[in-house]
Design a protein that fits this description.
single chain; about 625 residues; mainly alpha; two-stranded antiparallel sheet; 35 helices; 2 strands
């Protein structure tokens, strides 16, 4: 017997599987409109079943296809029928149900190119690119020749897996078989090389294409945008217009991605205007959300807000874009208000929402509000999420509750490297250097290899805790035991550590012998340490370096001025202050937050807008008197 399922049916275990599968499918058979049709008692012909399967494949009507499958099994229509089994395997592959498709595919002896192509396509489009390539190899081994319907998905699989060598081999096969002129194959080549980051080859393929469609242009635009060549993306868009093509939503999304990389609001607004004039993306939430994200990234928060308010059906991404946008632009209060509105609106938050909101709580030290969010996310089932758990660890440590931070950390079922780093940074923030070092030991015990961020946090913790010996040991252990070269951040921490402890000469020596060019932050750390230990000569050297690298940073001028003031060198103080006035530099006012009775209060230096201002200043005056009576002498900082 040379029927499609003969060999499959002859195997007892597969026959049992088939019967079980038929039974499961027939459960639906008698509970739907399709199976209540009079044809339930009268089997469909093979041609009728084939036509229905093709229709269900085109519309991806999975439920109806399952019912038809049950009907065919019930009446033994599939037996010895290669035509129908091929159609059925193609149906399941088109619907993305690859396990079902694979079972049927394996039982077909005479496989045609139609079936091979559908299976390769199914694997490539459903997150199984490696299986797609294995099947392509099997196809060639069976003597079946690939065609213009095969190569687009083989090339897609190569691109998804970043298999550059194999991708180039497949490209050469395309050329050998003369399929490079096929527009679908050409577009797939463009997409593959864009994923490889090889836009030079992509451009060469594009320039040689005999025919280009809108997808060709869009692929090049998005390819350049994703590979950080935003200027080239806009140039392709310009050439696309000259070639007589009109942009669609996909085109503009590629351009918006380019705008996000460049952080250029002017071009973003131009894209927005083009979309409005041509009625593109009016009802496309993905496009609107991308625009909102662009405006937030470019600090045009009000433009983002106006666009957000015009969105009729706001999805979770829309809310997330605005909530994180306000948090990134320093308006944590508005970010939290928007989160409350989102909850009342009934929109379901995701991990991105909670990360953004917890980040907003960090900014204003809203510990109680953060606790309420913690309770809310537990109810929503996000307590086991590693990324959200890490954000909670960070929020609690920055909010002042190190005990809660450690409790969340210990309760996390899975800890990422970022989680460990967040806990170390929390201890460092509170000056608990020895506890931070104990986390490094725990990482080693759990076979977790620390990265440069973890070492930066530990060195910072040692600096705040004054653990000079331990800090030195970790700095050199990082190089010898972990074979990790110190980065600028590590040198900056070491300069700060040694400077705070009064080892100014050693700190200066590290700066002069480090492999990198010292940054303004490193010199600023030495300047601060020099002021603290009243080393005017070293302070002047460090200050001049900072002035050269960051002439608009007013804090370094203030630090040098205070250094002179501590030594009563008033002429030098006036000279530095004159430099500040001449350059028009201004220091941003200090700001602090306190959470009381479920309300966060904000205070600025010299601010008298709070409704309890009189009582606050009266209490400050009282505290100053107590300090004076206790013998405390105020000094210039």
């Amino acid at each position: 017997m040379n029927g499609s399922l003969t060999s499959w049916l002859l195997q007892p275990y597969r026959k049992t599987l088939l019967k079980k599968y038929a039974y499961l499918l027939q459960v639906n058979l008698y509970t739907t409109h399709f199976t209540r049709h009079p044809l339930q008692q009268h089997p469909l012909t093979s041609l009728q079943c084939g036509a229905l399967l093709q229709s269900f494949t085109n519309t991806k009507s999975f439920k109806q296809g399952q019912q038809l499958h049950a009907h065919m099994i019930s009446f033994s229509i599939l037996e010895n029928n290669t035509y129908l089994n091929t159609k059925l395997a193609a149906f399941y592959a088109a619907c993305g149900v690859m396990p079902h498709a694979e079972v049927i595919f394996d039982g077909i002896l005479l496989k045609n190119s139609f079936l091979w192509n559908y299976m390769i396509r199914g694997y490539a489009c459903n997150g199984l690119p490696m299986k797609s390539l294995v099947l392509y190899r099997d196809m060639l081994c069976f003597g079946q020749r690939a065609d213009n319907f095969t190569y687009p998905f083989v090339l897609k699989a190569c691109g998804d897996l970043l298999l550059e060598e194999i991708g180039r081999r497949v490209h050469s096969e395309v050329v050998v078989f003369g399929l490079q002129s096929d527009i679908y194959v050409g577009n797939s080549l463009l997409s593959m090389y864009a994923k490889f980051g090889d836009m030079g080859t992509a451009k060469m393929v594009f320039d040689r294409m005999a025919e280009r469609d809108l997808t060709s242009w869009n692929t090049m635009i998005s390819g350049y945008a994703k590979n950080d060549d935003s200027g080239a993306a806009f140039l392709v868009f310009y050439l696309m217009g000259k070639a007589g093509f009109f942009a669609d939503c996909t085109t503009l999304l590629g351009l918006l991605s380019a705008c996000a990389d460049l952080k250029v609001v002017k071009q973003g607004k131009s894209v927005h205007g083009y979309a409005v004039r041509n009625s593109i993306g009016n009802y496309n939430n993905f496009f609107t959300n991308s625009l909102i994200e662009i405006y937030c990234n470019c600090n045009c928060i009000m433009d983002a807000w106006r666009l957000f308010e015009r969105v009729r059906w706001k999805d979770t991404v829309s809310w997330n874009s605005m909530i994180s946008g306000y948090a990134r632009n320093g308006d944590a209060f508005e970010s939290l208000r928007l989160f409350n509105r989102m909850a009342l609106d009934g929109s379901g938050p995701d991990e991105v929402t909670f990360i953004a909101v917890l980040g907003a709580c960090d900014q204003i030290a809203a510990l109680r509000y953060g606790m309420s969010i913690h309770s809310y996310l537990v109810k929503k089932g996000f307590d086991a999420n590693t990324i959200v758990g890490t954000a909670l660890v960070d929020m609690y440590s920055k909010g002042g509750s190190l005990a809660c931070s450690r409790h969340v950390f210990d309760e996390m079922p899975n800890k990422s490297l970022v989680s460990w780093s967040a806990m170390v940074a929390g201890y460092g923030l509170h000056g608990r250097g020895r506890e931070a070092i104990s986390i490094l030991d725990a990482m080693k015990a759990n076979s977790v290899i620390p990265d440069d961020a973890v070492f930066t946090s530990i060195l910072s913790a040692c600096s705040h805790a004054g653990l000079v010996v331990e800090g030195r040991e970790i700095f050199y252990k990082m190089q010898k035991e972990y074979n990790m070269k110190p980065a600028l951040s590590h040198y900056s921490c070491m300069v700060d550590l040694l400077g705070r402890a009064g080892h100014l000469d050693e700190a200066f020596e590290i700066i002069m012998t480090m492999e990198f060019e010292p940054t303004s932050d490193i010199w600023a750390a030495l300047l601060t340490a020099s002021r603290l230990h009243k080393n005017v000569q070293l302070a002047e050297i460090a200050a001049q370096k900072v002035f050269d690298m960051n002439p608009k940073g007013v804090s370094s001028y203030i630090c040098l001025s205070n250094t002179y003031a501590a030594e009563k060198r008033w002429d030098d103080v006036e000279r530095v202050r004159a430099m500040v006035r001449r350059k028009g530099l201004k220091k941003s006012p200090g700001c602090s937050f306190i959470e009381l009775d479920n309300m966060v209060h904000r205070f600025l230096v010299g601010d008298k807008s709070h409704k309890q201002t009189e009582h606050i200043y009266a209490k400050l005056k009282e505290l100053k008197l107590h300090l004076k009576e206790a013998g405390y002498k105020f000094s210039v900082l």
